[in-house]
Protein 1
Amino acid sequence: MTKSQSLQTLENTKPSTSEHQQLLREIAELNTSAQKIRSRYPEKARKLYKKALALSGNNDLFLTEKAASLAGMAFLSNKNGDVDIAVKQNFDAISLLVKSSHSSAIIDAYTNLAWIFHTFGDYSGALEYANNALRAAEELGDKFWLAIALDTYGFCFFSDENDINEASVYQEKAIRILGEIKNYNSQARVYNNLADTHKRANNLDTALSFSQISLELATKISSPYVKALASGTYSEILILMGRFSQAKKYLDEISGELSDEVPIMFRAFILLSLAQIYTKDAKTKDAKLSLLEAIEIFQSAKSISQLSAAHQMLFEIYEQEQDYVQAIKCLKISSELNEKVLSEKSSKQLYANKFVAKLEIARRDA
């Protein structure tokens, strides 16, 4: 939540006592501080959000700030691989704002949901949440949140049916806005997302160019989280371009640079990329070791879709080695995990549908 919106919340609220007013100000400042640092220092931000949430309690005067804390924690939960928790936190945040959508918290929650549903392959659902975020951001009029919503909408907008050029317009507008307000950390993230959009469109030269900008900006502003994010995209593009030796050299470098501020999931993604390169170089032993280490991380994070992908890669290696016993075992695990992914997707859609129905009733009764 931005400082201006937090103060606006304060002004629009009429606390019964000066203690309430002071507490509201403290909660707003905690949320604002957490939002500013959450991409660079996720664990520090998590502590601030938790403190803000604890101070909010069940006081109706603090609902908007409580929603901001929940949406912020959902952002961090999703980045850490705790998707189910993130979905619930986002919907809980939205439910607190049934009487008003004029809050950055609801934009945060809707953009979080858009990214989650896109990851699970529910592209129409993701675009719907992204559109909700964009409409709320346009109503709010805050430049930062408008940029975040534009980026999310552009990323979710691109598909086989929608043109890459039209999709990138939204993300490029977000980049310009973030440059105007000098939020270079978020600008580096959007450059990375734009690179990913072009990667999905198979515009690899363009994707690599935007990825390089993201990396340079993240390095310049010393943002470990965004640099790790951009590094993953950059190496994926190099691999798709067939530049395996360059990708390997780069991945080796960034592996040693990962700090405690970077979620361990990034380590797992690097291992997956290394496994791809080792497989291409016929270094199957190294590939298997990388995949097994990545699987341990994905298991601890309960990241089913990534577990499935890793076991599918193991299956292909064992099949190539003609170790059919292990190959069949890995294929079976991958298939079972894929069924779970589809089940989770359906479960999240059902959860979302039930929530929307309850939300409409609550809004009518408000």
Note: The CA atoms of residues 10 and 25 lie 7 Å apart.
Protein 2
Amino acid sequence: MDAVNYYSRHGSPDQKMQSYYYLGRIHGNAGRWSESIIALTNALEAGEESADVKYKGRIYIAMADAYNHNYNVVEECRCVDRALEYFNASGDSLQIRAALSCKAVSSMNLTRYEEADSLFQYLLAIPDLRPSLKSKCLVKYAYLLSLTDNPDYDRSYKLFQDAISRQAVFSAKDMAAYAYIHWCIGDTAGSEKMFRALEQQDSSVVGITAWWKRLIKEKQGQYREAYDYLKETVDYNSEGVNKALQQSLSVAQRDYFSAVAEQRKAEAKSSRAISVLVAATLISVLLLLLYIGMNVIRRGKERNLQIISDLEYVQGKLAATRQSVQARQEEIVSIQSKFREVFQSHLQMLARLYEDYKMNNS
């Protein structure tokens, strides 16, 4: 949980998604399937912005497994379909084939036997199918053939044998079906021995073995014993029904977290829209202020140019006036000089006349 808490606050979308995925796997390995579903739902939410489609496919496969253990086959099938979408987008053939095998099992759980049959046949016809996946398909296909209305017992038995030769892993349900097939091909002692060993190994599988034993008793015409086994099967399945009913909580929680994720996305989108609007408003205001400022500067420049022009005009007028005054002053000085010359000439003339007058009178 420490790693999840850290990455949920500081990690990238990929790191957040992966940390929740591993938490979901830890819960699943401990049998806490509801907690696993919630953690995996958080993984999908945290990885909303991640481009790792392959990892998202793995998350949906893990969710399908969790729903399978809680008897919610409808959700199991939905998750497998989503996983296939992501794996197809990734182009990873190994993951696509693994998801198809899960799809075949989920179809079988939904009693879509024809769809499951075609998927198993498709997978088993692939030459380079991964050995572990091939052994799994052999077991599950043999199990499917045991369920059909007109089962091919010999074919089912050969498929089981082929799987055993490949060291396939058998679940309790698979082993019970294998024991039933032994009876169908005439190995009654072997069938009873297998049923007994299975029940001794795990008493909780009695409900599983009872379902197959009921089929045997019906084929033998022992309907009273068949009814008793049917009752055991019903009692066993009632637990599964209760778990399936409890899944409404898990589904509700999943839907809640999905709704929260959608709400957060809407809030983030709204926040981004508000931020864009605020930014646009600020830019508009700045552009308006810039426009006003440029106009003020332009008008100031025009006013300054006009003032300079007027000043130059006045300076020109002053210079012209100064020149005119200077010219007049020079003219006055010239007139004054001429007047003095004339005045001196007149004085000199008067002086000569006076001298002549004196000489004549003496």
Note: The mean pLDDT is 82.
